[in-house]
Design goal:
The complex is a heterodimer. By secondary structure, chain A is mainly alpha-helical. Chain A has one domain. Helices cover 70% and strands 7% of the residues of chain A. In chain A, strands 1-2 form a two-stranded antiparallel sheet. In chain A, β3 and β4 form a beta hairpin. The radius of gyration of chain A is 19 Å and the shape is globular. Chain A starts with a strand and ends with a strand. The model of chain A has no long low-confidence stretch (mean pLDDT 89). By secondary structure, chain B is an alpha+beta fold. Chain B has two domains: 228 residues, Sandwich (Immunoglobulin-like); 34 residues. Chain B is built from six helices and 14 strands. In chain B, α5 packs across α6. Classes of the chains: A mainly alpha, B alpha+beta. At the A-B interface, β1, α3, α5, α8 and α9 of A face β5, β6, α4, α5 and α6 of B.
Amino acid sequence: MYIYLPIAEVSMHIGIIIGLGGGVGFLSGLFGVGGGFLMTPLLIFFGIPPAVAVSTEANQIVASSVSGVLAHMRRGNVDFKMGGILMLGGVIGSSLGVVLFSFLRSIGQIDLVIKLSYVVFLGIIGALMLAESLRTIMRSRKPGGTRGKLHQHNWLHGLPFKMRFRRSKLYISAILPLAIGAFVGVLAAIMGVGGGFIMVPAMIYLLGMPTSVVVGTSLFQIIFVTANVTLLQSIQTQTVDFVLAGLLLFGAVIGAQFGSRASSVLRGEQLRGLLALLVLAVCVKIGYDLVVRPEDLLSVELLK
Amino acid sequence: MSRQNSVMIMLGLWLMLAVVPASAAPQRLVADLSQNNVEITSSYHGTELLLFGAFEGSDGDDVVLLVSGPQIRLAQRRSDKVAGIWVNVETNIWENAPSFYYVFSTRPLAEIATPDTLRAARIGARSLPLEFTRQGGAHNGHEQSAKATTANAATIASADMIGGLIRNMQDMGLWAEKTAAVTLQRNMLFRATLDLPKNVPPGNYEVRVVHFRDGDVLSEEMTGMKIKKAGLSALIYNFAHDYSAFYGLFAIVFAVCSGWLAAVAFRRK
């Protein structure tokens, strides 16, 4: 059964949409990530215009982050103060990102920038995650390894506007989380992702937050960043297709349940290793598309 | 539905023509569509229409049917290898381009008439009165603009770009040239099947029928149709465009509620 998507202006088989949601939902449940970095390229691959894919995915991530953050809130694993600062940065960054997105689209370079962002950031994060999980797997095999310090002090801790974050047990400058939030916000708006895959490592390695609060706090701020992208894209470009978002969400909710059950079968470092491979696979695929000669050097875009 | 109906319509037309003496009037041409209003609803996945009509023909006559959609601007981009990756290096704007342009004919256009005749009659993608603007790019800083048909635009736009434009639009299913797609019956009736693609642009469509004899236009007739979004898909589209801020807020509330529902629904298990 086909359904005509009113904003994307294409018709797509309903089974494909729900299947995509389910598949990506399964992986996001398995690995504990949002899955935007998989979904947005897949939507584009299935013929959804890039602008619609990015905006609609932002809308879908609002929902998956809300359902994810509730579980973390019950366990008290959200640092609202830190989340608030990250969110403030994220809202500023994603607003800039939406403007940048429109500009790049008008000069015909948005596809290139989306692809390059994917290659660069998925490449870096994937490689780091793979190295880390391999190290952990190796270390667990030979006992007696020494544990490093939780975090090192460096020049970043000398910045002004210091604030105390009780839940994260930190006393650091507010500029740092604000800047991280803004940076990830720009990427979220351009790449059609929540940005958790960059935010989480940044929180652990740059801010030195305890791992227990990292995921919950990241999800908390992602809700606001993606909601901001949804609103701004709706106003500026009318590219949010909530029929598509709703169907994807339906599949994703079910897929995520199976995914999170399956995740108990594997160990943490194994999961991270697999996720790293998945991230690198997406990076390589998109990178390959950039270097291989396109079938047709000319392309046409319908303007309004 | 359409097959049975169309058979009835054809039969009716045929009878009508049979009663009228063939010599009664100068060249007459009538054309119609099996549907003058096409609605794009939520279940739309392309549709088939019948283009049909009657004409006073003789052996060897040709009929050309042209279906054109609302005019839009097209951005044509050329990519080239820059620092190892393929990048769009040039953008050209084509104005007054039909968003949809299907040409049906009894024979290949080149066999029906000379290029000059086709251009004068505005038939075929190479005869469209497009306006071409070279929008900067790597080579030219300055803009060039000119009114041109795709045929004589060759002075400013290379043949390669015109060919590319037609090829790209055809690949998207928005332009097509279908030869041997018009069926003639006893030189009185003509018919063609119009396959509207799933990505058909909504708007007002113009349908032209041109009757050729010995390479010249004998008569022509115009009719129209309307393609519009309807039902839920129209409602959502209009909501998104007319009240975009509310639409955005609605999309957010919808997402928050469904996320919350999902979390509650699966907690019990």
